[in-house]
Amino acid sequence: KKNTVKVLLFFDIGGSMDDHIELCSQLFSAAKYEFKHLSFYYFHNCIYEFLWKDNARRWHEKIPTDEILNTYNEDYKVIIVGDASMSPYEIFYKNGSVEHYNEEAGITWLNRIKEHFPYFVWLNPVAENDWQYTESIGMIKKVMNDRMYPLTISGIEQAIKCLKQKNVVTENSLME
Can you give the C-alpha Rg of the chain in angstroms? Predict the structure, then answer.
């Protein structure tokens, strides 16, 4: 019997995430089997104004992030899977993306996701002991209100506990 919890999975793919393909593939396979209501999308480095349904990330097949926010209600629990390894410009600056001209900074989109979906976590495949060596990991962890966990059995257990607790959005929790 499948779990009736509604889950939205966002996977970072490409670049530094290539080292973690096998682990992420295992997570995706397990999630697909486990959850009756599972939707997934792909992004590169940071979530911006569009995502992809296909991991080839074809530019002509992009889906507006606003459309996803309008399609899925706050009952969905959001799991973002990514190494959070990127230039700080990708998080904090308009046109900071390495792939396209983005009108709004990545943090703007992450804040919208946090505001819309009160149940969210970020799973990071990088060994937790190594997080301190990549500045952007600490930045994303802070943006995500410390709801970042390692992509390990223990980390997933912690993330599941966290997903049962609603995030309370306050002015202080929205970084700009």
Answer: 15
**What is the spatial distance between Cα 176 and Cα 172, in angstroms, rounded to a whole number?**
10
Q: How many domains does the chain have?
A: 1
Banded pLDDT at 91 (limits 50, 70, 90): very high
Q: How far apart are CA 141 and CA 132, in angstroms?
A: 11
Nearest-angstrom CA–CA distance, 1 and 8: 19
Whole-prediction pTM value?
0.88
Q: Which of 49-63, 75-89, 122-136, 141-155 has the lowest mean pLDDT?
A: 49-63
- Per the listing, tokens 């002991």 go with 129
Output b/e per residue, 61-93; b: 16+ Cβ within 10 A. Answer: ebeebeebeeebeeebbbbbbbbbbbeebbbbe
- 75/142 Cα distance (integer angstroms): 24
Other Cβ atoms less than 10 A from the Cβ of 156: the count is 17
Range in 38-47, 68-77, 124-133 the model is least confident about: 38-47
CATH code (residue 23):
3.40.50
- Domain extent for 62: 3-173
Taking the C-alpha atoms of residue 98 and residue 91, their distance in angstroms, rounded to an integer, is: 11
